[in-house]
Amino acid sequence: MLSYRHSFHAGNYADVLKHTVQSLIIESLKEKEKPFLYVDTHSGAGRYQLTSEHAEKTGEYLQGIARIWEQPDLPEELLPYMNIVRRMNDNGRLRYYPGSPLLAKQLLREDDSLVLSELHSTDFPLLRAEFSRDHRTKVSKEDGYQQLKSKLPPASRRGFILMDPSYELKSDYEAVVKGVEEGYKRFATGTYAIWYPVVLRQHIKRMIKQLEATGIRKILQIELAVRPDSDQRGMTASGMIVINPPWKLEQQMKNVLPWLHKTLVPEGTGHTLVEWIVPE
């Protein structure tokens, strides 16, 4: 089942959270000179046009990146991410938004490398074209979880693996945990980040219990909710579960999440969360 297109949701509040966390992890890894590998298991198209029919149909970016874009003074934690967004829109008008692979491409150094996977028949050619001239990047049309078996551990023994499936199927919640287990067996010192949507809270609680049962330690949960949990249709929150997070990430997110919540949810509903699922 491959009907999901991120172009309908690009730049929404979930993307803002995901890309804030992603950029802070990358910046932390860059503090050491030794190169590292970036793996994106569900890459999407790479670049999104916010004036497209898909983006305009949902208008989700208007309650996401558009609200950040309008702010004159940004918290320091947002600068790596927002500098890339501003560079893509250098005429001052918000028209384009980077997916996670393009954000990584812009933030990584010359000696770092990227492995990107996408199965969608429409998005894969767009992703391949976006990275066709980047010698650091390998793009493949295959199950991203297979990359965790074939590409880990990296030769540098340093790496960041981002996993953000669409969760179209209930089995995706279990699959992402199994993917982490596979990767961790091969590369226990890597940083793994799982994006998740809160549609039914019970799915997230079950996924967290499955992660706890793996025996993996150093698991941090970061969440931003725009509405209270509900059994009605629609996403009320999203989050990132980070294994082996950089030591600064917990405090960085505690610093910036209140600002993000106030800016993205001016009506004040929902909540923010930064807590350890499993400590060190």
Automatic annotation (TrEMBL):
Q: Which residues are noted in the entry as S-adenosyl-L-methionine-binding?
A: 19, 42, 100, 118, 143-144, 164
Q: Tell me where on the tree of life, at the top rank, the source sits.
A: Bacteria
Kindly list the GO CC terms recorded for this protein.
Answer: cytosol
Q: Where is the active site?
A: 164 (proton acceptor)
Enzyme nomenclature, EC number:
2.1.1.266
> Per the UniProt entry, what is one GO biological process?
rRNA base methylation
Entry keyword rRNA processing: yes
**Annotated site (Interaction with substrate rRNA):** 4
- Extract the InterPro entries matched here: DNA_methylase_N6_adenine_CS, RlmJ, SAM-dependent_MTases_sf
- Tell me yes or no: is Membrane among this UniProt entry's keywords: no
Under Gene Ontology molecular function, one entry of this record is: RNA binding
* Record field: catalytic activity: adenosine(2030) in 23S rRNA + S-adenosyl-L-methionine = N(6)-methyladenosine(2030) in 23S rRNA + S-adenosyl-L-homocysteine + H(+)
Alphabetic keyword roster: Methyltransferase, RNA-binding, rRNA processing, S-adenosyl-L-methionine, Transferase
Record family assignment: Belongs to the RlmJ family.
* Matching PANTHER family: RIBOSOMAL RNA LARGE SUBUNIT METHYLTRANSFERASE J (PTHR37426:SF1)
Relate the assembly described in the record: Monomer.
User: Which named protein is this?
Assistant: Ribosomal RNA large subunit methyltransferase J
